Structure prediction request, 78 residues.
Amino acid sequence: MPMSKELEHVHNQLCDVEKELRHLQNKLHHIDERYKEGCVTESHMKGDPYEEDGQAAVAEELEKCHQKIYSMLNTLEK
Prediction:
């Protein structure tokens, strides 16, 4: 059954939002990878990388971002 023009517009907007969320998820994944690489470098192998100033805060921020994007994507898929 074809959609009305108004519903088609809303549908297209939702598709755009989902595309943007996927882009943000991908971007966050790359940030996460670079962060993890930084924590595992040879200079960090000497001690606990989370003892460096700001590391715990950055880890928390990454986790919050992951949770928000996960929650938004879950809402869109329902």
Notes: The CA atoms of residues 38 and 44 lie 8 Å apart. Helices lie at 5-40, 55-77. The two ends are 21 Å apart (CA to CA). The mean pLDDT is 80.
